[in-house]
Design goal:
five-stranded antiparallel β-sheet, 3 helices, globular, 6% helix
């Protein structure tokens, strides 16, 4: 497979404009409120992007499964990990393999629940949520050290915060009525808590429900959010926990800024919640989805399919205004949204499967994408994924 890495400037629609503003909206004690039941003016935003496609190297030693996901992107490196199979691949920005490893089983991890890549220090942190343990590897997979996650925590995600600390997100998926502090920092050396983010949640909402659907038979229904909540854009973090109404910005100096709050509350009788899929210097892209798992379970038990349409909004960080994205989505990520990927600021990236590109090419659905038109004939359906990168200017 030939490598293609061509930069092409295009005008895109239904996305997020970029104007440089160093600070988000803060207007005294008045916090912007997103009313999820209200209609807002529609806004189509045009902006310029640098678009590139990076086919990842394919060989007998570099074969990815369908459960591989993009976890990290910089100007020099691409990291892809497979939660189930345990593979961790690191590529250079041209798609050539830099290193890989797999330490699933034995004294290694059971699953790669979350990954934090400290590129400057050449260390890869893998979280095993089942064993409640973090393994620290060199880029080629040499184990440097390992440590348990802090006692009485349920760490689900880890993020590279600074040279000495990881940011952790802890959540009891069964829910708890006890107040919790879900965000904290741990030492990269020994896993001890070094500091807390100044946020406390009164109660944690459950994300799993189990109920018998007929006598002597128990079926467990589990809905996992496939939409981004806590996100990292450059050195900025968006904290959007499903158990709290307010969305926050956490910066590298550990300062915490509330961005907006939402109504109805996430604790309403038929709850909905927001997630943040993208951040630019000026805008946030927001998705609103149902968290009414009991209603979903009721529908599934009756033989139906729980299809939830996403509402998408744009939040202007300068003015505090909300707008509606005219595009409609159902059970899929909105355009330009990221799923737990550590990316530079003003960047959107994701994996494209070659068979889908080839299928679209043959059906004529990509006739306006010059880069894909050039790339598609060079792909094989058995090739590894292609990384689509869009840098917003």
């Amino acid at each position: 497979m030939n490598r293609l890495h061509i930069i092409f400037t295009v005008l895109s629609f239904y996305a997020l404009a970029t104007t440089c503003y160093s600070q988000p909206i803060v207007s005294g004690d008045k916090l912007p409120v997103l009313d999820k039941t209200k209609s807002y003016p529609e806004k189509k935003l045009e902006f310029e992007t640098e678009l590139s496609y990076v086919p990842l190297e394919t060989s007998d030693n570099v074969l990815m499964g369908e459960t591989c996901y993009l976890k990290y992107l910089s100007d020099n490196r691409i990291l892809v990990a497979d939660k189930i199979r345990g593979d961790v691949f690191i590529f250079d920005i041209k798609g050539k393999l830099h290193s890989k490893f797999n330490h699933k089983g034995g004294k290694g991890y059971t699953f790669v629940s979350s990954v934090a890549y400290a590129e400057k220090d050449k260390e890869v942190f893998t979280l095993d949520e089942v064993y409640k343990k973090i393994f620290v590897f060199t880029e080629d997979g040499t184990l440097l050290r390992s440590f348990r996650t802090p006692p009485e925590t349920h760490v689900r995600m880890i993020y590279n915060f600074d040279k000495n600390n990881l940011l952790c997100f802890s959540e009891n998926t069964l829910g708890t009525a006890k107040p919790t502090r879900p965000y904290f920092f741990i030492s990269k050396e020994n896993g001890e808590i070094t500091d807390y983010v100044n946020l406390e949640i009164a109660k944690t909402k459950p994300s799993r429900f189990s109920e018998s659907i007929r006598k002597n038979y128990s079926m467990s229904y589990s809905w996992c959010r496939i939409y981004p909540d806590n996100c990292k854009f450059g050195n900025k973090f968006i904290l959007a926990d499903r158990s709290m109404d307010t969305v926050y910005l956490l910066k590298q100096d550990k300062s915490l800024t509330p961005l907006f709050t939402q109504i109805p509350s996430v604790n309403a009788e038929h709850p909905t919640g927001v997630s943040i899929g993208m951040m630019t210097d000026r805008y946030l892209k927001i998705s609103v989805m149902s968290h009414d798992y009991k209603e979903g379970l009721k529908i599934v038990k009756s033989g139906g399919k729980w299809d939830t349409e996403l509402l998408t909004f744009i939040f202007d960080l300068k003015t505090g205004e909300f707008f509606e994205d005219p595009r409609k989505y159902k059970n899929r990520l909105p355009k330009y949204s990221l799923l737990n990927v550590d990316v530079p600021e003003n960047t959107c990236a994701g994996l494209r499967q070659p068979w889908r590109i080839i299928q679209s090419y043959k059906s004529g659905r990509i006739k306006h994408d010059k880069l894909l038109l050039e790339l598609a004939p060079k792909l094989d359906i058995q090739d590894n994924p292609v990384v689509k990168i869009e840098k917003i200017r």
